[in-house]
Amino acid sequence: MRLRKLLGVLLLGGLLFGLVSAWKPRVPTAASCNEVWEHDVDEKSWGTSKFVWAGVHAKVLICNGRFVRIIPDPNHNPPSPNLVAEAQGVQVINNETFVDVKKWEKAYAHIDYIDPETGDRTYVHAEIPTSGPADERRVRP
106: how many CB neighbours lie within 10 A of its CB? Predict the structure, then answer.
């Protein structure tokens, strides 16, 4: 009788331990993480005197194929992240760059402007992280 109770407690404890272990979120290991360069560019140009360009270039941490955070590197030239928002020959409404320095989860360059061909308000926007996991077209080793 005692042996049955002991086996029952051991079996139940093992089941609980297995459930807790399976529920616990996995922590990325060093082997599953890579530091890569990611960039995003949005460009509108009409010639040498009229153009609008936004670009973001940064070293990022990718774990299990998913973006984790931007890796700031002031010693790299240009610094990571490198943000560019340039316009020439157009009416600029808003020109801004942004880096989330507390969490390093987001960086972008953005320009609102008047399109010289249509007269409509439009924009260029480049951002890291880009939507979804980093893909091969945007990531350089």
Answer: 16
Q: Cβ neighbours of residue 99 under 8 Å, at least 6 residues apart? A: 70, 81, 83, 106, 107
User: Is the pLDDT assigned to residue 33 strictly greater than 80?
Assistant: yes
Pair type for strands 91-99 and 82-88? unpaired
Q: Is 3 helix (H, G, I), strand (E, B) or coil?
A: helix
Closest to 52 (Cα-Cα) out of 124, 126, 127, 128: 124
* Average pLDDT for the chain: 80
Tokens of 108: 């972008």
Domain ranges of the chain: 28-134
Concatenated DSSP letters of 8-44: HHHHHHHHHHHHHHHHSPPPPPGGGEEEEEEEEEEEE
The one-letter amino acid code at 30 reads A
Contact between 67 and 59 under an 8 Å Cβ cutoff? The reply is: no
Strand partners, 117: none
pLDDT tens-digit map of 92-106: 999 999 999 899 999
